[in-house]
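dumping this here before i forget
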Amino acid sequence: MTQIPTWSGGPASPPTGRAAPGTTIGGRYSLRSPVGNGGMGTVWRATDTLLRRDVAVKEVVLPPGLAPSDRDALYERTLREARAAAAIQHPAVVQVYDVVTEGGRPWIVMELLDARSLADMVIEDGPVAPRAVAKIGIALLGALEVAHAIGVLHRDVKPANVLICSDGRCVLTDFGVARMPTDVQLTTPGMVLGSPHFISPERAMGQEFGPPSDLFSLGVTLYTAVEGRPPFDKGDPIETMHAVVEDPPATPQRSGPLTGVLMGLLEKDPARRMDVHRARANLRELLAGPLTSTATAVNSVTDPYAVVPVPRPTTPPAIAAEPKPSGQIGGRAMIGPEQPPADPLSAPPRRGA
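structure:
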């Protein structure tokens, strides 16, 4: 039996007390089959009978014997996830369509994605090619940049919360522990929400934290993708968190040109940690240089996750006029195999800090 790494985020056994296929939520969402289970509940494939489209519905399943105050906190966390994700308009963030209260508990209705998590990809298929990891990094940097611009911290960036869709789109999910500026404190002092392998040093020590904390988690996520293992894994949550605070990351063996960006994001001091603009610029330079794609590389089995595995056209596409920079933050969620990385968005205008 294959042992699932402790950092994978799953799989989890289906929780008890969940809804059954055929149940209708909110008078319009018909549950069809579960597509994922976790400690907090189940994600269902469902049909929106009003708009006649497939959607994903997240059900919160409460553990047995939960105190009323804890139950209310979990419900509030679900609503907070919906609000946080709905406030972020970016193709690398899952779209939230609706929130429904049914049976006294909230259900989140989201876009249904044909995707695998980055954690599953690494566990089942091994390390991801550096070029694909660079593209994933650019997409996630855009999602985090837009989130941080409106004051939202994700607080749980990890491979299990990164989805790679069949059309190549990279999506950041699960804003269940995200924090918006208007949120009240839902955790007790000293309580840490998130995954030990991917938590930032400042959070592990109980210090104040901000956007750099998400970027550290992103660095751990990208390192894990390209190396096939987290940089601070000690096999025990407490020892792992100690390593996050005190130890340097394990020397990378597969990252190649990505190493500089990874080490910049894994800087212990948040004030010295690589920011979004620098990380994105470096990744774009790598895609245009050391990690550039050739005709051979695009079709090569050594790069199975090109993030956009779309069929290559038999005839060269017409070259459209390059759009002028829009000034929008966030960038794109994916890079096609025919798209030159050094496009007008490669040097976005700086906005504030």
